[in-house]
Design a protein that fits this description.
Elements lengths: L1 E6 L1 H9 L4 E4 L10 E5 L5 E15 H8 L7 H7 L5 E17 L15 E3 L9
Parallel strand pairs: 1-3
Antiparallel strand pairs: 1-6, 2-5, 3-4, 4-5
């Protein structure tokens, strides 16, 4: 299995530009995964590419900020607001990002697609043609 993450378009752009090198999550998928596919949320509503996850850091929120601040792509206020009510969180290092020249409508490849709240497991072979 691989994973599909919903990410707001403004943060997707920061990933594309290399400013954002960590993706933050309150919870992590438990299954092993090789690729993380990026679903750019409203208004794009498209799968725009994927990355290979590097190191996954799990720390209390303040330590996580200190460890990842430089390449977070977020302001401190955005970071704290995202983790509001959580004592700890995860940072996934973004390695080898692959932006597709033509985004994919998830409804064309994922049966009964509904945008995930935090993540969705997907079949590893679903995007062989696109890659």
């Amino acid at each position: 299995m691989d994973v599909l993450l919903p990410i707001r378009p403004k943060y997707v752009e920061l990933i594309f530009s290399g400013v954002k090198r960590y993706e933050f999550r309150k919870i992590m998928p438990k299954a092993d995964f090789e690729h993380i596919y990026i679903y750019a949320t409203n208004p794009a509503k498209q799968i725009v590419g994927f990355f290979e996850p590097g190191k996954i850091i799990n720390k209390d929120v303040n330590s996580l900020w200190k460890a990842c601040e430089k390449y977070s792509g977020l302001s401190y206020d955005e970071f704290i607001k995202y983790f509001d009510g959580h004592q700890s969180g995860y940072a996934i290092s973004i390695n080898s990002f692959h932006k597709w020249s033509k985004p994919v409508d998830p409804r064309s490849v994922i049966r009964n697609f509904h945008a995930p709240q935090s993540f969705q497991y997907i079949d590893r072979n679903i995007f062989k043609i696109v890659r």
